[in-house]
Amino acid sequence: MSLIAITEVKKRFGDVEVLKGINLDVERGEVVAIIGKSGSGKSTLLRCVNGLEMIDDGSIMVAGAQLINDDLHLKALRLKVGMIFQQFNLFPHLSAGRNVMLSQMVVKKTPAGEAEAMARRMLERVGLGHKFDAYPDQLSGGQQQRVAIARALSMQPMALLCDEITSALDPELVNEVLAVVKELAADGMTLMMVTHEMRFAREVCDRVVFMHQGRVHEIGPPEEVFGNPSTPELRQFLGAQLVV
Amino acid sequence: MMTFTLWDILRNLLLAARWTVVLSLVSFIGGGLLGMALLYLRIGKARAGRMFVQGYVELFQGTPLLMQLFLAFFGLGLFGIDVPAWLAAGLALILWTAAFLVEIWRGCVESVARGQWEASASLGMGYVQQMRYVILPQAVRVAVPPTVGFSVQVVKGTALTSIIGFVELSKAGTVVTNATFEPFTVYGLVALIYFALCWPLSKSSQILERKLNVAHRNH
C-alpha cells in the first residue's frame, strides 16, 4: 500500500474550486516534485496532506492516519507527516536547539535530556550542530530553513512535505538547503515537494507531478515530464521556465 | 483667618495621593486579571464567549468612564444596595481597565504571524500547547510596552472618582482649595503629583519598547 494516498480530493475556497478531484499515491521512499503555475493548487494540496487545510470531498490517508477534522485525528496525521514552509516559521523566542526540542517534549512528552540529544543529532545532520544556542535572528535564511528541517525530522515523521522551501532564500543560500534535502532523499525519506527548482526536481525526484487548474495534468518520471511533455500546457510552462 | 504654608498644602495632597496610588494598583491588577479571563474567551473557540467579550468591550469603551462610575455608585443604590464610594470606584475602574486591556492584548496575540500557528500545528501541537509555548511567549513581548503605557490612563482615570466622593488626589485638591482659596497653587501641585506618578510609567514604556524591539529586531 502507498504511504500517502490522495483520492478524489476536492477543495474550494468560497466559489473558487482549487482542487478538482486529485488522485495521487506516493510510495514509501519516493520523492515527488509538484510543479505548476501559481494558482494551480499545488501548495493547497500539500497543505491538505498536513491538515492545515480541510478538504471538501475525497480522502487523504498517510500510513493509516486519515485526514479528519478533529484534534485527535489531526495530531495522528501530523505525527506521520512533517512540513517545511517557505517562510521557515522558526519560533523566534527560542534558540535553534529549543526549536527542535519543543515539539518532542510537548507533543511526545520526551524527557528533556533525550529531546536535547535528538535535537543535537538532527542539527548535526543538517550541518548546524554548532548553532544549537543561536537564535533564529542570528542565522541566515538558509540556516533557518535547515533548522526547520531538523525540527520536522526530530518528530521522526514517515514523510516530509516541502512547500517551496527555497523560494524565500537568496540565490546563494538555495544550494545548502537543497543539499540537505538531497541527502534526506538518499536516506530513503519520503518527500513531497512543491518547487520551482526544475533542475533539482529533475536530478533528485522519482516522479514529477504537473498541476494545472486544480488537476493533475501530467505525471511521470522526470525524464519523461521534462524531456517529452505530452500536453501543450506543460510545454508552455516548461518553456516559460527556460526563459527565466 | 488661618494661613496655610505650602508644606501644609503639599502634605495633605501627598497623603491623599496614597489613595490614588492604591486605587490605581487595585484597578490595574484587578483589571489585568479580569482582562486575562476575558482574553481567554475572546480568542477562544466558543462563539458565545467571543460575542460576549466583544459586547462587553463595546459597552465599556463606548461609554464615558464617568457614566460607569455614576451607574456603579447610584445605580446599585436604586436596588437598595448601599455602595461605598471606594467600592463603586474600584469596581468601575476594574471593569473599565479590563475592557481596554483585553483589546490591547487581543491585538498582541493576533500580531503573532500566522506561520507560527501553522508550524506549531504541523508539529502536532494542540491549541492549548500552541498558545502556551509558541503564541503567548511572543505576544507577551509585544504586549508589555502598550500595557505599561495604558497604566498611565488608569492613573489619570482615578481622578474621576473624586466626583462620586472618593477622596483621592483630585478630591483632596478641591477640599484644600476650599480651605485655602489658593486654587492655582493647589491644582498646580496636584498636577505635578500626577505627573510624577505618570511620567516614570510612560518613560519606562518607551524604554521597554526599545529594549524588546532590539531583542526582536529581525521579526
TrEMBL record, chain B:
It is found in: Cell inner membrane; Cell membrane. PROSITE patterns: ABC_TM1 (PS50928). Its main location: membrane. Pfam families: BPD_transp_1. It is a multi-pass membrane protein. The chain crosses the membrane at residues 20-41, 62-79, 85-105, 139-164, 184-202. GO terms for cellular component: ATP-binding cassette (ABC) transporter complex. InterPro entries: AA_ABC_transptr_permease_3TM (IPR010065), ArtM/GltK/GlnP/TcyL/YhdX-like (IPR043429), MetI-like (IPR000515), MetI-like_sf (IPR035906). Residues 17-205 form the ABC transmembrane type-1 domain. Keywords: Cell membrane, Membrane, Plasmid, Transmembrane, Transmembrane helix, Transport. NCBIfam families: HEQRo_perm_3TM (TIGR01726). This is Amino acid ABC transporter permease. The lineage of its organism: Bacteria, Pseudomonadati, Pseudomonadota, Alphaproteobacteria, Rhodospirillales.
